[in-house]
Amino acid sequence: MAEKRKADTSFSSNDASGHLAKPIQLLDSHNGKDNSSRPTDSSVPLHTSLWTKAFIDRLGVRIVYEQSPENIVKEWSLSVLSEKYLDDIETMLPNVDSCLKHLDFDSLEDILIAIRSDRLPVDLLKIIKLNTDFQYPGSHFASFRARGEDFLFTLLYIINDIEEDVMDWQYQILFDKFLKMFGFTVIQQPFMKTKKSQIMRTTVDSQSSLLCYTSDPRRQRPVVVVCEVNNNEISDETAGNHSPSMKKQKSSVSINPILPHVISDSLMAKHVGELFLHFDESVSPRAVLGMTVQRTVVHITLLHAQEDTLQKIRNAGSEGCVFYDEQEKRARFYYSKPLNYLKRDDRRELVRSLLHIILMQQRFEQ
Question: Is the link from the previous residue into 190 a cis peptide, with omega within 30 of 0?
């Protein structure tokens, strides 16, 4: 597991909030080796999809593994939840279990295999109980039943459409439907404009997979969460216990696909870039919340930076590295342990964090 890996000695073992955190080295997604020794390109990548571990090292970003996604949300701390809100969350969680209690699989392909082997009826809507009266916070315009059935219909449609691979856009739409069950306002392509910002005196472009907005998108800072959904970013550490031939295979209905437990260096670097570019739109001026979604596996993420740090990164020369007089001035990127929203136990922990986010957003907008 990622939390047991040897720490990068260039990083501190504790974050600024006092949480015990474990900064680690990222994997080179091509050869499974530490990428820090590769030659440093002196140019600035013009699109965040081209960002690399070497480039975010040049920006001085500290990478911190924080196992608990809930701790990351609390570090974001858009607003402080009272005991009543916290009690409400614990009351809501059993409803998640009861409403989706039969949804407990490793992957979409695993569901299809179960259907084909007659372990499941084809009509998933008949086996998954949906509470008709229960509503999650933020579900102002549709009941949880309507949103839940929309998610399940999309899930079934994608499963029925599987031939060899599930496409990126299918995973993206499915996660969009999942978030909307819990009251998130989500926008995705083609409705999002390309985001542009200055990094090291260079204009950089970015396009995220999904953006979660406040209830009023006209706010000056309307972005709640930045999400990157990806199908093919599987780190070699995750695939290390499988045969070489297995590593090369894409998702297939004939195999149990390798699910990611570590974010690959290329996906993380791209996501860090997206968070930097959306910082000026984040509802919190001190941090921007994010998620990476690899197939159905979610990592909660957070980029924390002070305003003078952001200005230093934007105005530094395009060659060389960004230097800091004080190490605590460096931007910090946190990411959580992986949680698969198709797995019942993982989903319960993920939903707890999602409910914290949506309730913090509601209190913030009051």
Answer: yes
Strand 210-213 relative to strand 223-230: parallel, antiparallel, unpaired?
antiparallel
- H helices then E strands: how many in the chain? 11, 10
Pairing relationship of beta strands 332-335 and 297-304 according to DSSP bridges: antiparallel
**Distance between CA atoms of residues 344 and 105, nearest Å:** 8
Structure tokens at 359: 């309730």
How far apart are the C-alpha atoms of 127 and 270, rounded to whole Å? 39
CA distance 269 to 32: 16
Please provide residue 24's backbone torsions phi and psi, each rounded to the nearest 5 degrees.
-135, 165
DSSP assignment letter at 29: T
Helices within 167-302 (DSSP H only)? 168-180, 244-248, 265-277
Place of tokens 């509470």: 131
Q: What rounded mean pLDDT belongs to the chain?
A: 78
- Check if the beta carbon of residue 32 is closer than 8 Å to that of residue 244: no
Residue-wise pLDDT for 17-65, tens only, equals: 334 344 433 333 333 334 433 334 568 999 999 999 999 999 999 999 9
Give the tens place of pLDDT for each residue, 260-283.
567 889 999 999 999 999 999 999
